[in-house]
Amino acid sequence: MTENQSPEKRPLQPPIQAYAPAFLALLASKLNDRISSEGARFTATMGLEIPVNTMSTIMALKDSPASVTEIADALNVSHVAAIKTTRILIEKGILVRSDDPADGRRKPLSLTAKGKRVAKNVSIVIEKAQIAYRQLFDEIGVDVHEALLKMDAALDRISFDKRLAQA
Predict the structure, then answer these.
(1) Rounded to whole angstroms, how far apart are CA atoms 59 and 25?
(2) CATH number of this structure's domain 50-166
(3) Cα end-to-end span (Å), the chain
(4) What integer pLDDT is reported at residue 10 of this predicted model?
(5) What are the residue boundaries of the structural domains of the chain, listed by start?
(6) CA separation, residue 144 to residues 58, 73, 87, 148 (Å)
């Protein structure tokens, strides 16, 4: 090939398929974005104007108040992630922060009256999501939730960086 010749054009292969399963994280992220986006379209039809990723926080607070640290622990997310989510819900009037008379340092969050109404609709969405996921898992022949829990436990035993080093 000379300098003026262009290389032969070949169709670009998507890495998710070409290097499977090496791009599992990319595929998982893509599916997360898709499920969140499509879920948000559904929740909007119910009048729920909250980010889908805040629903777990609402469900965690459905029965009793909790601090940001307690929420982060319950949801197994970082403290920073819990702060970001609770700020969104406070700004939307769904959560309120109060003082704990027994511990001056603790500032529990609880659902407002609006938050309790939202929580009822979120509960409906969660029930529907459970059904939809079970149907999807039956359709594909894999309980993805169970598989991901097993994968997470396996990574607790041997981290992914160690698995890469051993490969």
Answers:
(1) 27
(2) 1.10.10.10
(3) 37
(4) 83
(5) 13-45, 50-166
(6) 24, 23, 31, 6
Q: What percent of the chain has pLDDT over 90?
A: 81
Structure-token match 């500032």, residue found? 107
Place of tokens 């109060």: 98
CA 118 to chain centre: 19
Structure tokens at 59: 């469900």
Report which DSSP code applies to 103: B
Q: Which residues make beta-bridge pairs with 111?
A: 95
Mean pLDDT of 148-155: 97
Residue 144, token pair as written in the block: 């993805």
User: 47-60 burial by CB neighbour count: b if 16+ within 10 A, else e?
Assistant: ebebebbbbbbbbb
Encoded amino acid at 61, one letter: L
Joined together, the tokens standing for residue 64 give 């009793």
